[in-house]
Structure formats: C-alpha cells, structure tokens
Amino acid sequence: MIIKQLSVFLENRTGRLTELTGILAENDINISAFSIADTADYGILRMIVGRPEPAAEILRKQGFAVKITDVIGMIIPHSPGSLHKALELLSSNNVAIDYMYAFASGECKATVVIRAESLQKIIDVLMEHKMELLQEGDVYQV
Amino acid sequence: MSDMIWNKQYECMEREALLKLQGERVKLMVNGSTTPSLSTEKNFRKRESNPRDINTIDDLKKLPFTTKQDLRDNYPFGLFTLPQTDIVRLHASSGTTGKSTVVGYSQNDIQMWSEVVARSLTMAGVTNSDIIQIAYGYGLFTGGLGLHYGAEKVGASVIPISGGNTKKQLQLMEDFGSTVLACTPSYAAYLGEALAEEKIDRRNIKLKAGVFGAEPWTEGMRSQIEQLLGIKAYDIYGLSEIIGPGVSMECHCQKGMHVFEDHFIPEIINPDTCEVLPYGELGELVFTPATKEAMPLIRYRTRDLTRLHAEKCDCGRTLVRMEKCVGRSDDMLIIRGVNVFPSQVEAVLLEMSETKPHYLLVVDRENNLDTVEIQVEINEQFFSDEVKELEALRQRIRANIASTLGISATIRLVEHGTIERSMGKAQRVVDKRKLQ
C-alpha cells in the first residue's frame, strides 16, 4: 500500500525540467503523476514513476539529488464533494499531512498522493472506512 | 581644504633624519628597551637574526616576517609583549570559525593611536571647531573607537553614533550640524542617497569633509559621495594588526596617503620572493610598528598590494605616500568593512556536515552597499523533499555564516555540479563590485 515516490531537487533554471524528462524518456521510464513545490530559487519535483529504484539510480548518475519517499495513494470517486469527504475523515482523526497532489484517472476515479509522518495511521483510518488505496502494482506498471 | 599640520616635527622631518629615527626605534624595538619581553625566546624563535645585528633601518630586512597566521597560531594573547596588567584595550577582527585576530593596546599605544588619528583628521581640516559624526562601528572593530579618540584629541565635538540607524544619522546630522562624517565609503554613499530622499533642507546640512576607509573604494565613488553629501572626501587607511585606522591618511593634495613613518615603518616586497622593492614599484605592503608596546609585530605582511612614493608632497609633509591598494596578495575580501576569507565560509559549511563544501561567494554592490550571496551545492544526505526542511537548512547556514563571519549573506541552494570547476579546483569567489 506504500508507494515509492521520487523527489528531485531542481534549480529554477530554464530547461532544467526538460533535461530531466529527457533522461527519463531515453530510459523508457513512465511518469504516472508529478507535482512541483517551488520557491524563489529552487523547486522540488515529486513524481510517481514506473520503476522508481532504477529511475533514481539513473538520475543520480546524471548529478541530480534524488530521494525516494514513502507516500500513499488514496482513491476517491471523480465527483464533486468526494475530496472534501475524504479530507474531513482524515482531519477528524487528527492526521497531519505534509503535502499532497492528485490526478484523475479515467471518468470515475481520482487518486490523491499523500505524504505524512504517520502513513500507517492514515492507512488504518482509510481501511477502517472502506476507502480504496492505490496498490504498488497499479502504478508501477502503468 | 586645510594646510594645517598636527605635528610638524615628525610629519615634515627631513627624510635622512626620519630614516635615522626609524633605525633607532627599530633597534630599541628588537633590543627590548621599549618592550621588555620582545627579545624573549618566544618572539625570536624561528628568527635566525640576532637583535645585535640591527643598528640602522637598512638592517630591518634581516628580520623575518610576521603573518596573520602567526596571530592565529598565538590566539588570543600569545604575541603580547606586556603582561595583562599593562593591557588597557582589546580589539578583534573576525576569524576562521571563532578564532579572531586579537590585538592588545597599552596606555601608550592608545595615546600613539590617538596621535596618528589626530594627525589624520587635521589633514582633512578637522579642528576643535568641528562636530564629527562617527558612523564607524563601535566595538571590537577598530574603526569607531580609533576615530573617536583621535577626534577627542583634536578637540572636536564627537557624536559617537556608531554604524547603522540611517534615519537617526540624518536627523542628528541636521539637528547637531555635524561638519565631518567618518564611516565606510559605502555607508557614506548610502547616507548621501538617503539624504536626497528625505525631505531635509540642504541648508541645514553643514557637512564639509568626510574621512572614509576600512574598505576599498574608487575615484568614481569619491566623486559620487562628494556630490551627494556636498563634501570633500578623504581616504584613511589602517589595519588592526598595526593599530587600526590612522596608519596612513590623505592630505588635501590627494596624491596618496601619507604613512606616519615615525611609528609605522613601511616596506614594499615582492609577495613571491619576499625581496624588498624600491619606491615606485608595485608590491605587498609590509609594516613594522616600531613604537608599539603591547603587540609590536615585526615586518607584518598586510597582503595589500600598492606602491610607495617618497617625493616631498605639496602639502609640506615629507612622509611617504602610499597609493590606494590595488588588490590583495591573498584571497581576502573586504565586505562592508569586514574582512572575509573564503576559507571561513568553507569551514562553516564543513562544520555543518550536511553540505559539501562546494560553494561560491558572489559579492556585488547594490545601492552602494555590498551584498553577498553564497551559493551552496546541496548533496543527497541532507536533501529533504519538504520545502520547510530546506528552508530551515538555509536559515541555519545563514545564521552560522553571520555569527562566524560577522556579515549577513543570502544563501542560495543550488544543484550539485552547478558551480564551475576548473582544473579540478572550484572557483570560490565572484566579485562583481566595479572598483577600478
């Protein structure tokens, strides 16, 4: 249920992201989802890719600072109010979230990637309420 | 403009008599007559010369040099030649991770310092009719207190306002009618621009002269400051190891800074071969403060590159004139009057262990104030994928740099490999300040 996310330090420089996506393309690595946290000087690229470990190695060899972080993917209906409902559930259980981003897959479902200190607690809460969680096999083979 | 001379006897002495006096003073210095413990083993260790070989000023070159490293190795009081009971003042400049360069002064040293600063201020036309605003930092830095004692000796009314607090500076300048300003040239220019912005009636500003030093500045900056503040700007030179400000000073002819040679004996050497060079040639400036009691360094290498000229000046003084320093024979930077070595930055980063010591210091000058950006390459061990962690790291680097170097810097985190390396050695400094 825990998914490996790749985080990469990127300077705010024109073309830098393109260099990175070029490397992933050359190595046939698929990106399922990504987001960028940006500051004035740099950004942190976070992405879910098909083969996280080899992708990290490839990027490291090219001089990128890469980190593999544990996240979870919470699956919710692709409909109004469903994100709100899920978040209410988490906050009522006092779960603090570091960051999250989401992507919709198809007509009916959306996935919310969540990073938090206590991932296990989130998993427990979601399971208890019969929410669907992304499995490793779902993303890596996309 | 002033033709006044504070101490004609020494400032206008015939060269021959002056050189004879220097010889006598150096002889006294190394024989320990004025400084009882100078000829002890500690100070003559490593020195192959014998104090008895020193009889005239020409013999000075037989003595070995002293460097900043000697001060560091003997931190804090190892080079003092007087017992603590005779030390009345301590000053210090920033140094590598907490180890500063410490200098001590005896009662006589403070008096001699006041004397040379009084001579300097007189060159800028300062008398007891003046009100002098001292906007150099007061504290461990020699600028504030050095100017202060000399100004009191001249009899001027001193405003010991210290650096910063620009609004208050301008208010007192107007309310008290300051006639002389003493500070770093960059702060003078900054004050000048602030004055133009504030709604202050220029008729209330009585400034006529400025005594500026502690950092390199250009003729361009001089005319800018003179125009902004409506004054004549004078250059003062000094370094704490020798005494502080007042080692040399410009007279109204502004053809170089007169070195107070009866106290500070200058030499110019080739920094590579250490051979003494004749007047007029460019080399590293070396000083022997012959009358200093508490810490009389022999042949101290300043690392400043300049030339000396011995022709008599139109002002009547016979003291040699040194040109504005054209650079350094080491990698020291002077940023807002503070001495900064790139190695200090490296030491701070190494100590934090989270960062590779790959860094680049980018020094620039915006609105007449020096700015420093330190680019730091991040490595994987500390790379966090959370912005708050990286920002906390940036703050920690910033705080450590500020406490060790005494300057505030902008920290920029950059990717590994961003900083250019040439011949395997990284470039450490980019100085964008246009000083020539």
Automatic annotation (TrEMBL), chain A:
Pfam families in UniProt: ACT_8 (PF19571)
Superkingdom as given in the UniProt entry: Bacteria
SUPFAM superfamilies associated with the record: ACT-like
Domain ACT: 71-142
InterPro entries, per database record: ACT-like_dom_sf, ACT_dom, ACT_dom_pair
Coiled coil residues, start to end: none
UniProt-listed PANTHER family: ACETOLACTATE SYNTHASE, SMALL SUBUNIT (PTHR40099:SF1)
Full protein name: Amino acid-binding ACT
